[in-house]
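User: Sorry, what's this?
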Amino acid sequence: MVRIAYNQAPDLLYWWLDGYFDFGDAQSLRLRNSLSEIHDWHRKTQLPDYADLLREIQGGIAGDVTASQVCDVVARVRERATRISDRLEPTVIALAPTFSPAQLTHLEQQFDKRNREWRREWLEGSNDERLSRRFRTLSDRFEMIYGPLDAGQRDLLRSRLASSPFDARRSYEDRLRRQRDALAVLQNLSGRAPAPESLVRTEMRALFDRSLVSPDPRFRTYLDALTRDGCETVAAVHNRMTATQRERARIRLRDYELDFRSLAATR
């Protein structure tokens, strides 16, 4: 499944983006070509790096881990994700001024649709119902790697989530901020005479930066606390895993590593 999904990634990403923007022919051609080129670059240069990181993680998974070690892995994964967005940046800069008012209205409608789905998942229902949904999501992710959790591990995970600093309302407000910011920048760039590329690059780079790092220091403090708590939860649950579960996790990560190395060798 990993290999099938990876080989289809350019088409899947294109259709996901098209759902937001409803691209025209020229826009589609530019984006598809760019995604194909990025996919080739990613296969040749990034997959071997991912495989090396997975091998490194396997080396320590048999023992206990600290929250700092987990956060280090998270930071390294995020840094690798940033490489992809940087690679896509020239295409984003080229497309940004070309969106029509109808396309930006479509984008706003898609934001509204997905926001309704987000609210249903994270904001609606009682505290216990919201906690249960978060628990199901995270326990499924643990079990995908480690196998079934026992009662004690499930209790630990639920307890950690119950005391988490996660604030759905605050996270939702920042989600809306990022969407409003994106719409305002795109409307400004598309609503004027052709803007110099240097201006488009400056505006889009600033937008990317604000999307990744909130300009609100209070939200940054909240997000830092949430990240630290997440790392502590992963470490705490991992450290309650049995030797059998840890070996299963090692094998699963090894399988992913081998998938990445096989895909990287495919031309």
Observations:
- The chain has a mean pLDDT of 94.
- The two ends are 19 Å apart (CA to CA).
- Residues 106 and 201 are 23 Å apart (CA to CA).
